[in-house]
Amino acid sequence: MDGWITAGDGRLTTSPLPDPEPTGDELVVEVIACGVCRTDLHVIDGELPQHRSPVVPGHQVVGRVVSTGPRVRRAHEGELVGIAWLRSTCGSCRWCRSGRENLCPDATFTGWDADGGYADLATVSESFAYPLPAGADPVAIAPLLCAGIIGYRALRRANLPPGGRLGIYGFGSSAHLTARLAMAAGATVAAMTRGEGNRELARELGAEFVGGERAVPPEPLDAAIVFAPAGGLVPVALEATAPGGTVVLAGIHMTDIPAMTYAEHLFLERDLRSVTANTRADGDEFLRLARTLDLRPTATPYPFARAAEAVDDLRSGRASGSLVLVRDA
Question: Residue 208, exposed/middle/buried by CB under 10 A (0-12, 13-18, 19+)?
């Protein structure tokens, strides 16, 4: 790749940037693969407030350590690591001290506050890098670093009972991994999503019901997760959820939620919850579970030179499953 792929003014540009030098406890990582996340699209399209411009997107990074800062203690050159969305936290606020570092007001994020993985090289603090097995498949691992981890946190927050019915609204990268995780635990899944490719993937994975994004599942749901960034689906999901059920909003950005009524949508102890990033503990737990279950995404690789095409395929809904930029693909 000739340069770094930066986002600014709603578009991607290949820019010549200097190679990073590690400081403190930083690792410089040679990028092998980087998943394309809807959050990248929100950054590129300006749906999230601008934190840095231009910025290199990408926060589902798999690569090899090529150099280390003077305070690095455990990582070594040549080791495979993962870089995820959460980049740093203050470590001292009430949220960090209580194990909820994802709520830290001073948190920074890869590909938003600092350059990410649409590049030859990326940096990460040693304490925020995920050690990976030497023989891991980078294309299979990359989507796990955000789509998988966030889906895992959303599923935990959904309070799905054993053997329960889970509704999933939107069936992209995170959703299809979450469906696999829920079904492995004995749940039945109803998938409501736009795009025939996404619906076909849900059928292939064994969803009990598959329909359009506003379809009504045949049985009330015990829990639902809204992955699509569409606020109009929130009352739809609540209406489909049984009394005592939980609806979780799993995205970092969502269009406005329309007016709802207490009686129709929230009464009978229905809970509405959100997900705000993840903790490193979430990532550690999920990656161990993914290895145990051999959880693998349905992934389409793109060479880095086709990053703009991959982003546009995600934007338009032409692609299903996970999209991964790969060196020399």
Answer: middle
